[in-house]
Amino acid sequence: MPHGQTRAQRAPKTTRPNLVRLHVSGDICPNLLPRLLGLVAQFDEIPYGIALTRHRASLKLSIDLGRLADARAEILLNKVAGIPTVRGARLVELRRD
Questions:
Q1: Class assignment of domain 19-93?
Q2: Where are the domains of the chain?
Q3: What are the distances in angstroms from CA 8 to CA 5, 11, 48?
Q4: How many other CB atoms are found less than 10 A from the CB of residue 14?
Q5: What is the per-residue pLDDT for 8?
Q6: pLDDT for res 60
Q7: pLDDT for the residue numbered 22
Q8: Burial class of 91 by CB neighbour count within 10 A (0 to 12, 13 to 18, 19+)
Q9: Is residue 13 scored above 70 in pLDDT?
Q10: How many Å apart are CA 2 and CA 6, to the nearest integer?
Q11: Which of 1, 15, 31, 93 has its CA 20 to 30 A from that of 55?
């Protein structure tokens, strides 16, 4: 390895907590993903995974989060539903097999 270069370090494997997946469908809008991530950040959460699929006239997003208390989950869903371009949102508990 040339002088001054370092090799990338891999993060140690850790077990994931029980997760919930936030499913959101909405109109095609360049601000939808940043707005959703901003709401997630307000809850001091860092997503474990994000998936986005663009369809002809809509977006489908999935964001994997750590377990949320019921009250916090309801607040998050209400805030997501308040985004004008959101058509629907739901939280689903992910099973670990």
A1: alpha beta
A2: 19-93
A3: 10, 10, 21
A4: 6
A5: 62
A6: 98
A7: 96
A8: middle
A9: no
A10: 9
A11: 93
Distance CA 97, CA 95 (A): 6
Nearest to 40 by CA among 97, 95, 96, 91: 91
63 by DSSP, 3-state: which? strand
Q: Are 47 and 95 in contact (CB under 8 A)?
A: no
In whole angstroms, what is the distance from residue 7 CA to residue 62 CA? Answer: 32
Using the 8-state DSSP alphabet, how is residue 85 labeled? T
**Angstrom distance (rounded) from CA 89 to CA 41:** 17
Cβ atoms of residues 52 and 36 within 8 Å: no
Q: In this structure, how many other beta carbons lie within 10 angstroms of the beta carbon of residue 76?
A: 22
What token pair was written down for 63? 């964001």
Q: What is the residue whose two structure tokens read 């959703």? A: 36
- The amino acid occupying position 53 is T
